[in-house]
Amino acid sequence: EVIALLLSPTPYLVNAPLTINLNITINGVGVITARSDGTAYALEDSTSTLPFRPILKANSTNSLFIIDNGIDNTALATNAITNVTFNDIDFIGCEQNCTNKGGIFLNKENLTINNSVIHKGNANYGGAIYNQANATLIINDAVFRANEAIDGAAIFAEENNVLIKKSLFTQGKAPNNGIITINTASTAKTTSIIENSTLSGNEGAAISGGKDVLISNNTIVNNTIGVRLNNNTPLIYNNIIAGNSQADCDMFATIPSDGKVYFANNLSTVSKGCPIGASNHNNIVITNTGNETLFAALDSNNRCVAPPAIGLLCPLAENGGLTKTHKPRLLANYTQLSESPIVNKGFYDIVANQGLICSSTDQRGFARENSENRCDIGAVEIQTGLKAYKQGDDVVFGQIKRFNISENIFDAELFPASLCSNLLGAGEYRDGCARLVDLPKHGVASFDAQTGEILYSTTNPSFHGFDTFSYNIVTTLSRFSDAANDKTLRTDVRVVSEPPASLASKTLD
After folding, report:
1. Which of 183, 237, 468, 471 is the most buried (most CB within 10 A)?
2. CA-closest candidate to residue 82, choices 93, 92, 73, 94
3. What is the pLDDT of residues 190-236, one digit of tens each?
4. Rounded-to-10 torsion of CA 12, 14, 19, 22
5. Are the C-beta atoms of 491 and 389 separated by less than 8 Å?
6. Whole-angstrom Cα distance, residue 80 to residue 126?
């Protein structure tokens, strides 16, 4: 069965838990995914007051769904287990004292949730989702926000069979226990996997796991505790587990000397409990001071303070993809790319390295570039943006057009003006070491001293045609280019100029 749930400006209210006992897919229909200019929306966007997807909301102190076909799954054949999938639907719990188990979902079957915001669930166990023994839970591209529980504020799983990818867990509260809690089963179950996700700003242990929980390419920061394993051995690779107030790693069993690799290519904070392991495991420990300060400060626009300010990660923000992330930074005072404790510090495919190979994409769905056969650690792979680029627009005599010089820098930042002379020689510079080249022939281009944008206006009131010019910039990433003359990024600008009385034309692509 397939059910279409239409987009509505107000939530659908659920007065009592709905039991689903058959194979079914429920799709949000009329979902808004992009702005009028074609740019994609994230799952959460503070600029819009209207919902992007249908919303199901608890109307009282109740959960929303019980996924249960009424048959004991303990010895059940796989094809007899019910499969339930939700796509492009948001869920809001009752916020307080909702139920004992599963504030939004109590799952006893196979539950898959894609492209959803799941928030304000509250229960004793499993504030948003309670996953019973022998059930399976799959989460892709989801936001778990402001869920609360005694244990498992976002997810409580009685045993393994949990797969979480490309998701954000934030503002959860389970003060003395886990935000994601996965207990160990008495019988062998499929290894649970948490991959390419961000767990940030939670009160409690971001991940509280038992045996056989694989944690790879995640950013686990700014929680009370990063990962608590309840005296089990880790399977943890290519993660940032740092800046957690009480501990980054807690209650790890002694790692055995059996030739296997349990904890490799991870970044953590000194004296916060994480094992370092053998030298060829490539774990990195930072002091969280000076150049190793984990978080950058915020400017007046709630963005990372521009270089040369320090801070290895930007605060949680929309950096592409469906969910918010902590974007890694390359500090302006690095003299070589290898000084970064994040970039190219993941698994690399040579005999000397051990651990788990990186995933092919990051949390945002962007390809991991595997520069030098190594990925970046954490949930975000820095995208270079080192490509030819063009800008264009229409202009009528008397108008001033603005061009943003940061459009093509992706995850990099403009190299600070104060350091440009060290790179390009003596001279007067602005941020990005920006310089005009190939000046326009029918107009004037200049830099706005306040914003750093390029201003263009035509000087001939009767001119009708194309005008072109170019400019170069340097970013915190392009300066590490191996090519001698490739440290700058060139952008070509083409303007369609019209006399004041001419017919309107379309913006040049």
Report:
1. 237
2. 73
3. 789 999 999 999 999 999 998 899 999 999 999 999 999 999 999 99
4. -10
5. yes
6. 25
